Amino acid sequence: MTDLRWGLLATGTIAAEFAAGVEQSRHGVLAAVASRTAERARDFATRYEIPKAYNSYEALLADPEVDAVYVATPHALHEEWAIRAAEAGKHVLCEKPLTITAADAEKVIDAARRNDVFLMEAFMYRLHPQTRRLVELIECGAIGEVRAVDVTFSFDSDENDAARLGDPALGGGGILDVGCYCTSLARLVSQAATGIPAVEPTRVTGMARLTESGVDEFAMGLLRLPGDIIAQLSCGYLLTQDDHIRIYGTTGQLYVPKPAWIHELRAPGVSTIVLTPSGGEPDVIEIEATQGVYAREADYVAAHVADRQGPELTWAETLANLRTLDRWRTAVGYGR
């Protein structure tokens, strides 16, 4: 397995969480960090004992002692800096969503292909033992044939986050920020049930509460997925809801009261899946994660860097999810 020297583009909350994860990883080291201001870069570097701090992203990309770059900028900047990182010969882990639209993602993937570098969208929850156990239960027929999925990821953001997430120029909105987890999970269930990779819905409908600038504060969506599975999705950045996953089958149901994407489960610890057979008693399945999600993510990149894609988070998977998000945002009237 390759040990990777990481450079971080941006110094926000998610960059801090990833930096802490790299510190706990087995095959990654923090080599450099870049911010638009020298002071922020220096402060971040001091906090995480990173040897190099740059006051421009360009300078970090020019550093020959950086192997891989974590793009943690606002959504609207992902495309530019993922492409520029690839063109600098750096392997790329980019925060979700990879880009604002599927068409933009095609450009990033093309850059990775042309420059022969690793590229992956950072859906860390897909690598969590809870998610992998959920897939196993579906694949082994624990609830019979899957019929329906219900997924919610929604929160009420603070003033600073609300300003960023409400800005259409920055790719704001609940669908892109957290609804992407909902579509990813629903599609994963369909893939586990049918054995078809990178599935896409045959139909997408939805409604949302939109701001004056056309950004979705919260939204709901309905998908019809391969396997004749119906998925109900709910997301938002200005509405607190109970995050959960429910999967209904012909002989039972699965319930995840705390999905692997919530903050509490980003650290090592125990999570649960509740399996309830039709007419039977609930069985609480405990799943232990011995490694934090970001440490696991960094090691996953190191393990698959020679493959140029993550086997569970392929380029085809990223494009399928973004095309679904494109259709959901269109359905709710985003930008109107």
Automatic annotation (TrEMBL):
Coiled coil: none annotated. SUPFAM superfamilies: Glyceraldehyde-3-phosphate dehydrogenase-like, C-terminal domain, NAD(P)-binding Rossmann-fold domains. It comes from the Bacteria. It holds the Pfam family GFO_IDH_MocA_C3. Keywords: Oxidoreductase. The keyword Oxidoreductase applies. The keyword Transmembrane helix does not apply. One of its GO terms (molecular function) is nucleotide binding. Residues 132-254 form the GFO/IDH/MocA-like oxidoreductase domain. PANTHER family: OXIDOREDUCTASES, TRANS-1,2-DIHYDROBENZENE-1,2-DIOL DEHYDROGENASE. This is Dehydrogenase. It comes from Amycolatopsis echigonensis. The lineage of its organism: Bacteria, Bacillati, Actinomycetota, Actinomycetes, Pseudonocardiales.
